[in-house]
Amino acid sequence: MEIFPESVQKLWNAWELRSMVLVSLFLQIVLTIFSNRRKFTVTIWIRILIWSAYMSADWVATVSLGIVSQLGDSEGKHDDMDPNHTLMAFWAPFLLLHLGRPVQVGVAFTCF
Question: Is the Cβ–Cβ distance between 60 and 26 less than 8 Å?
Answer without folding.
Answer: no
